[in-house]
Amino acid sequence: MPVAETGDPSRLDELIDERRAKARALRDAGIDPYPVGVRVTHALEQVRREYDGRLEPGEGSGAQVSVGGRLVARRGHGKLVFLVLREGDTDLQVLAALDTLGPEAMARVEDLDLGDWVGVAGEVVRSRRGELSVQAGTVTLLGKSLRPLPDTWHGVRDVETRFRQREVDLAINADARRVVRIRAAAIAALRAEYADRGYVEVEGPVLHTQAGGALAKPFVTHANALDLDLYLRIALELHLKRLVAGGMTRVFEIGRVFRNEGLSPRHNPEFTMVESYEAYADYHDIMDLTQALLQRAAVEAVGTTALDHDGGKVDLGGEWPRRPLLDLVRAATDRPGLSYDTPAEELRALAAAHDVHADPAWGPGKLVLELYEKLVEHTLWDPTFVVDYPVEVSPLARRHRSDPHVTERFELIVAGRELANAFTELTDPDDQRARLEAQARARAGGDEEAMAVDESFLRAMEFGMPPMGGLGIGVDRLVMLLADVQTIRDVILFPTLRPER
RNA sequence: GGGCCGUUAGCUCAACGGGUAGAGCUCCGGACUUUUAAUCCGGCGGAGCGGGUUCGAGUCCUGCACGGCCUACCA
Description:
Strand content: 15-25%
Radius of gyration: 29 Å
Mean pLDDT: 92
CATH architecture of the domain at 154-320 and 466-494: 2-Layer Sandwich
Distance between the termini: 28 Å
């Protein structure tokens, strides 16, 4: 009837109208299509676990269960109907027989639609063909589905649907559920490893009065009560270091950070980082920590350190090599004599020879880093700690104990991508102030990503900090590696998209 | 920000040099008491939005929207 009202309804509208009509008919019969107070005795997964390997084909268990799930398949045989319920990753068959249910209940089973949430109470049996099933004694509609789901055979491939309507993706695509579980297990493993090492989990502020701790453009928002512009955090670093100054000698935080920059298969404006700080540790200790964290995350999330990735293999097992950044650039450019004392003009010429863009304002450190990023980083496949980054590009890292040109900093590269960034932290307040002031000058010169001088942070440092090592891990990229997916949008449940129209 | 590409039924995909758009699944009607992509018979349903060229446009041109890839940017 709404067909005439809307004039030219789409097929989808017709399908929805049919389902609404069924819901209406149920209400008219005194049945709530959205009931409450339903209890189940077993998750579907529990039924499978308890009866896997038990019961002969055609045998009944005598045990009664009450289960729930989404109806994802139906095979009708007239007086016998096979239903398949899905709950999470588990599917379980239901036998609905006219003999057992009677004509009235059987008619309501016939009226169920794929996508409906359904409760079934009955005996656990094995069908004649050997499929573990529940022989339905009662069938209850738990939640009427008004909108047809994509068919379970083909799934949903359209990426826009998958990202915008993640509920559909999860309901239909087992791989989407797999990634969610890997993510959860990896994060749980990181927490467990930190807990085992005596770290305390903390939560810093998300709203900052100035954005610091990384080089990135922030999002700006406004606090009405304070009539104050605030910035969404771009890193966790500065507040965590203040906590160490306060005597919290081992702290970590897992949290969302926000960077107002471009989107790409590897960048989402909001993403998840874990950062940790450990008093008395240096970057060598943090490399050991990083290796332990990621190896544990791999084992607990996917069961092995030998990962399939992007058509190849990546093994996170064993000891990971530690390679000075300058050595890597020397090798890549075939210039063994290269150093941070090499004149900038010569480095610029070298960059030009390798088609690497070089800004005239850059000094030797930045030029060497640029050469590394363009020539070397993407070539590092197995886990590699790249160590000793130039001072001028590392404003929060301590100078190297024996080389004034570089800092005690490393990045972990796996499969050509940065997974972690860490250093022996700078704890000298005067050195820190000088570095931040250099950043502030760059900022005044138009560099929107340069840091500002954070007086609260400097004051904390002036009270005195223990020596410490700090670590930041990109959780999304870690999950991409573990789950073998190529876009960050596959590991973030609701990635940033333009609004649909 | 720039370049290239995509958008066909609820889902997954076709076709054609510009000439009435096909299939499978889903859905609707029917048969069927052990199927599991059940099967069998019958049926409904479609070109992202807007302009233009043309006798005629899903197809050619163009604007817009959304998306993808590359690039730029990016600790």
